[in-house]
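Provenance

Sequences were taken from public entries as deposited. Structures were produced by running a predictor on each sequence independently, with no templates supplied. The record for HemY protein from Bartonella choladocola is shown for reference.
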Amino acid sequence: MVRVLFYVLVVAILGAGFAWIANNPGDLVMDFGSSRVTVSVLTAVIAFVLLVVIVLLLLWLLKSIFSAPHRLSRHFAEQRQKKGRDALSNGLLAILSGDIDTAKQMNKRVARYLDSDNEPLVKLLEARTLLAENDVPNALRIYEEMSKSPKTKLAGFYGLYREAMRSGAYEAAGQYAEKASLVAPSVTWANQAMLDRLCSEGAWDKAIALFDREVKSLPRSKRADKKLTHKRVVLLTGQAKDMFEYYPDDARKTALKAQKLEPSFVPATLVAADILYRQHEIGKADRLIENLWKTSPHGDLASLYLDGEERAVDRLKKSRTLFQKNPQAYESFYIVARSAFDAGELQLARDQAEKALKIAPRESAYLLLADIEEAQSGDQGRVRQWLSLAVRADHDPVWMADGKIFEKWQPVSPISGKLDVFRWQAPSRNPGLTLNPDEVIPPAIEQSPKEAKKASNTGKSGALKAEAKIGSEKIGNHEGEGTQAFHTKPIMIVDAVDPSKPETPVDVTRINVDDPGVHKK
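Predicted structure for HemY protein:
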């Protein structure tokens, strides 16, 4: 708008000037030696303007002629830059979409059109393409070069950090994260890696201080986020767990603080209750577990709750108290059944275990029923039937981190060194053992010719996969390795008949060809 007004003003001034000259006629007399030229003022002004325009046109023409090579060169350079940037964007998109062949072609085109010193993304595309081709050494070399350039320093450190984590070199990954954190303290992944490293080293005070600085750098509206609160609870729980040996009172305060921040977090309650039990505050510890049991029944809570009772009868009594807090949960029925079995109340144990199975057909309940059957009747056929059902039952949840099973929760994974990766979940099912029918039917059982022929035909129709877990107790960590083993062995007689159903005959052990573990031809 201002520019339009300026042009209007200039035109108005020129028009006013020509109008004034036209209204005030006069002559311009020029003497050249013996000659005299007389022209009007208006004609002289017009001639002067035309002369200026001609001079300007000549100057523009000369400039265009002399600058033509440079402009032509710049045009070709711009075209090369355009082709190179198009290839670069297409290559990065191809890498993200998994199109390796297109990424390799685009990488070659980018190398032909663009200079890596002027375009930092060229090296990134080259490194990602090399990784897609599984050429890790050359990719790491590119990332090292990127980490030495001011423009690509952070991207280089991040690439080195990712590859170190992927290959299991967690110490090297921590060093790269520390370098990146020094370059840019606000980088989230570097701060998280530093936090993991401090926690794995047991430097909880420094880890909490680093976390507090990270939280303070966020807007006030995001500081109360549930994820941040949970991370703080994990840090406080880990700190209380480690410091109890030397500072029990401080550990108690820290554990109770963590439990109060997130009462539904089972490990926080476990650590707080364990510390209270050790300090002989049994009533308060019991209340913590009982309150959490109402909403989140957990096997570790029950074990800690009953661990202080030496007599089996007292454990049964206390388990019934816990049962009343959540009488609809599988864990409530199972803990009563387990306590009743230890106390010799076999019928009560059987009833509670069967009720637990109605809620969730888990492996632990079937194994417990096998133990109850062996103690109550000694019928090995029925015991094997319970074990066969345990093979196909759902696994009980355990603490898992980085694909491994652990006996107890830990704030930091001993494998990867990452914070808060432990999850309470059921492990994946292991493949069963394939048995021949001749191995399934023991020679000790006498069969009629008709039954023997039927069993033989069944064996020709397919193979039976079976595997039984012996015992319900879990084997803990071995020298800090963090793995949990389950002893398994093949069962010679496998039947899918549920012994709890009275209408099912169990006098003769048989193979059920309708069982999912039997393959039919």
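The beta strands are 27-32, 35-40, 398-401, 404-406, 423-425, 433-435, 464-466, 468-469, 488-489.
Residues 41-97 form the longest helix (57 residues).
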